Amino acid sequence: MNSRNSRIGLTLFAIYLLLYGGFVFINAFSPTTMEATPVAGVNVAILCGFGLIVTAFIFALLYGFLCGPTEDDR
Amino acid sequence: MIYSPSFLAVGIFLLFVGFTLGLSFFLGGKAKSSEGYFAAHGQIPWFVNGVAFAGDYLSAASFLGICGMIAFYGYDGFLYSIGYLAGWIVALFVVAEPMKRLGKFTFADALNSQFNSRGIKLAAGISTLAVSIFYLIPQMVGAGVLVQPLLGLPHWAGVVIVGAVVITIVVTAGMVSTTWVQFLKGSLLVFFSAILTVMILQRGFEVYEGPIEPQTVTKTADGQTLVNGLPLGEGENQASLKPVGHLSKLPGGMKKTGPLGPLEFFSVLQESEVLLSSPEKTVAEDGSVTTTYTPKPTPGSQVLRPGEHPKFKGIRSDNFIDKLNFLSLMLALFCGTASLPHILIRYYTVKDEAAARKSTIVGIGCIGFFYVLTLYMGLGAMTSGAMDVTNSNMAAPLLALSMSELLFAIISAIAFTTVLGTVSGLILASAGAVSHDLVASFRKTELTDHQQVRIAKIASVVVGMIAIVLGILFEKMNVSYLVGWAFSVAASANLPALMMLLFWKGTTKQGIIAAIIVGMTSSLAWILLSADTFAKVYGLPASDALVPFSQPGIVTIPLGFVTLVVVSLMTKSSADC
Fold first, then answer.
1. Which tens digits make up the pLDDT trace of B487-533?
2. Do A71 and B316 touch (CB under 8 A)?
3. Which of B94, B389, B407, B508 is the Cys-Cys partner for B400 at CB 3.0 to 4.6 Å?
4. Can you point out the beta strands (E) in B171-306?
5. What digits encode the pLDDT tens for the residues B5-18?
6. Closest by alpha carbon to B276, among B72, B39, B420, B89?
7. Is the ipTM of this structure higher than 0.85?
8. Looking at the complex, does the CB of residue B501 fall below 8 Å from at least one CB of chain A?
9. Integer Cα distance of B576 and A1 in angstroms
10. Domain ranges within chain A, ordered by starting residue
11. Structural domains in chain B?
């Protein structure tokens, strides 16, 4: 792994850790927040859950895209 | 409930198993060397490997356990889905490429790449074995659970069938056939779960008009089972449990919704009322135990919020320790994935780091998509009117049965291959650890290629046998509960060593060995001393437990890191002197 890839990876990792950690902490310390229904009658718990799963996939694609070309040239 | 074996299900099941075994024998010829046996010559295409990740990872606990938990309690099971997927972020961004670059066949290889230490091989080999066996138990129990309704066989028969099939797969062809079995299973599982979800949305919700009655199951002191006061059976003067899982009210007084959109599904449920049956146990004076299942109207908004399952209730209490238990579980799920030995060895089956990365991305796509579907399947099962109150693990197959028998047959067969795929991956990981790490660490000379493969095959048979025995012994244990343990032990033992090796130059071999041993033993000890184990395994009062909460992760993962740093600093200075 070259250092550029690892830097991108760690940055995305840190952002995701914040998102996941935030979600877990809200669940633990303010569970009622999860009951609100801000969009289309769907509650925050489901929106956040789907959001975290979709974000993981988008980050994965982003990572693959950002460090793709350098290695394929080799 | 009484299940009658379905011939269609048996037929499709035999077809699946036959095809899987055929594939193994066909591919077996290609895997004579250790390179082929452990790593499929590093020639698995990245896309296939990515789907195989899904096959490896989406175990019986994911499919049966999570769906069942959502079907019985609502949103809480989905927290597992979120945590299990989030773990892949660690795998992709931190572990994937270094694993591929540093190692050859096993996790110990990667740890040991700079040190060439026997101690590391030994410690990492033992932790691989411990985690794999822990993870094997729930898979085998799941197999037994499935085979009862499907084939009408007893629990032990299911465990023995799975054990025998898997040992055959692993011994004949190692990683090549294991990978293809997992590829097949991963794609089928995701595909048919998607079909099931579409059907749930098409069916929509319907209000149940029938009578709402409590049901009772009594185990008498002399070992008889009574249902609603009558002997269990389907004849005259006999009774069996009726399927449950209904809606008692829809918004606006509707009786039926018709097809729903993917978000509409939740917004309608949010405004509805669901009948949930929670068990209540009473012990009579003559020693008979009666469990009463009373259908209780529950608002949809409550079903869709976290904190309803007994295990997650803690987040609604004011007690900080209960909240800590939840944080600890979510931390273990996050850190556990990238430390599971059977996932880690999958990085050696592709040709380079780029392929390792790409296959992880494919894996995240498949697994994430599947986990989104778990919420629909679980809630669909909750309202399908087909649930067995006594067995949450059957929720997903019974949901399929409420749609069509063919779908039930296919879903059950897939659930069974799910177990096959994960178990073969785990047994292979253990076999690799025994032959490549443990045996090699005791010998001065390198084993020959042929010897390594032979020892691995013997180890597969032995580990397979152990798994069969444990699967039978732990019949009554909850499947997803045991998986939580495996994740905690994996994260505590393996992750600190792996992370620090990659990011801290001061790491010494003594530090790695100490971190693995301390992480593994402390998390195991914590689990054995916890309230959950006291109550469910030893049958002792939960209040006697010696640790304050049940999930070890939040204490033992940091402990692993601290141990590594302290021991590394100590051993470093002594080497400099």
1. 888 889 888 988 888 888 888 888 888 999 999 999 988 888 888 77
2. no
3. B407
4. 215-219, 225-227, 230-231, 246-249, 273-283, 289-299
5. 667 777 887 888 78
6. B72
7. yes
8. no
9. 30
10. 3-72
11. 10-23+34-203+317-576 (1.20.1730.10), 215-316 (no CATH)
